Structure formats: C-alpha cells, structure tokens
Amino acid sequence: MTLNKQKIHILLKGIETGDPDAALVVNKQVYVQLHRVLAQDNFVLSIGEGFWDGEHSAFYDLFRVDDNKLVEHWDTIEQIPPISEWKNNNGKF
Fold first, then answer.
1. Which neighbouring-strand residues pair with 73?
2. Distance between CA 70 and CA 8 in Å, rounded?
3. N or C: which end of the chain has fewer CB within 10 A?
4. SS (H, E, C) 62-85
5. Is residue 28 scored above 80 in pLDDT?
C-alpha cells in the first residue's frame, strides 16, 4: 500500500471511529489558542496560535460571509521563532 493510500485509510478509519486525531495525517495544522476574532461587515478575521507540521506557528484566517454562510477563506501561516530570537519582548500576539 502506498503512503497516500495509508493516509487515506487512517483518515477514513478515524471518521468511522470518531477519532479527531486521524485528520492530522492530512492536515498538519493544530490550533492551541485563539487570540483574537475581529469582524467588520461580512469579513471575519481569526488570529490563532498552534503548530504546523510540528513548528510553533501563528495562524491568520480571513473569512467572507454571505447569507450566513462562509463563502470564501484566505489564510496565512507564519512560524514563530524561539524567544531567544525575538527582536523585542512584545511577543507575537
């Protein structure tokens, strides 16, 4: 069985058993903390922190809402350097 087929098998088995960790085989993004949610008109921005493929990261997700549905999504992920590499003490958030 190829690696991709193994990942799909793990994902489907997780859906069948209700295991939320199964999604990690295809989605390497793990949210740990939500810092801010900002909304104006039909746009919503969420600013969060977590891990992307094991790297400490910041997540910015922008959604456009229309007729009470999410109709568009943009995102960006930025690695957060170790504290020893920060240029100031303000932190990322």
1. 63
2. 26
3. N
4. EEEEECCEEEEEEEEEEECCCHHH
5. no
